[in-house]
Design a protein that fits this description.
Number of helices: 2
Number of domains: 1
Radius of gyration: 16 Å
CATH topology: Jelly Rolls
CATH class: Mainly Beta
Number of strands: 15
Shape: globular
CATH superfamily: Exo-inulinase, domain 1
Structural class: mainly beta
Distance between the termini: 22 Å
Length: about 210
């Protein structure tokens, strides 16, 4: 993110009134111009909520290892229909690339067990054997599973996630990974944030772009 866009974003955070589009923690909504972050700086900054893991920026990438479900949440509320894209690579043979979408922006694991407030997208989970789209509980019986593709350690992937109406779909390099139509969509306050997440693998994220649809 350029210095100009960083300053504008911080100014908006400080000045934006808490109207109906705000979350309980006071985060303003992403506007029609969208949001992007290339992590070309030294510190995470005030637009990110670190829930307690070792999230850091290294050489222009967001890096994490051993987060154990303590996400890094963006302090911006998502529109209902949205596209979220980012580049990512795992340095572990376990794969385990993970993010959350339409969560509360503050939730985190406080024990080994963790129930999310979001949809959870996992590429190469469970020993690099499963790709999953889960509603709240990544271990739940209602999760959507796919057994391919698998994560190749060190390879950079482009992840795209969209919600249109009641359907959420995730792609990897333009190949559909998982899709779910939810008759009771997670929406509104408490279900309007995006976050990066991780279990144990070393993951490098970059080039986040969020586009209202």
């Amino acid at each position: 993110m350029s210095r100009f866009h960083t300053l504008c974003a911080l100014g908006a955070l400080a000045l934006a009134p808490c109207v109906s589009s705000c979350t309980p923690q006071g985060d303003p909504s992403i506007g029609p111009e969208g949001y992007s972050d290339d992590f070309e700086r030294e510190e995470l900054g005030e637009l990110w909520n670190n829930t307690g893991a070792s999230w850091r920026i290294v050489d222009g990438e967001l890096v994490i290892r051993n987060s154990r479900n303590r996400p890094l949440w963006l302090r911006r509320a998502l529109p209902h229909d949205v596209r979220v894209e980012f580049d990512v690579r795992s340095l572990s043979p376990e794969g385990d690339i993970k993010c959350e979408i339409f969560g509360d922006g503050t939730s985190r694991a406080t024990s080994e067990s963790y129930t999310a407030t979001s949809y959870v997208v996992i590429f190469g989970g469970w020993g690099n054997q499963l790709n999953v789209l889960a509603r709240l509980d990544e271990h739940g019986a209602d999760r959507i599973e796919a057994r391919s593709p698998h994560v190749e350690p060190g390879r950079t992937y482009h992840i795209k996630i969209e919600r249109r109406g009641a359907t959420i779909t995730a792609w990897v390099d333009d190949q559909e990974l998982v899709s779910m139509t939810d008759p009771d969509p997670l929406e509104g306050r408490g279900h309007d944030h995006f976050g990066f997440n991780d279990w144990e693998a070393e993951i490098h994220f970059d080039n986040l772009r969020i586009t209202p649809l």
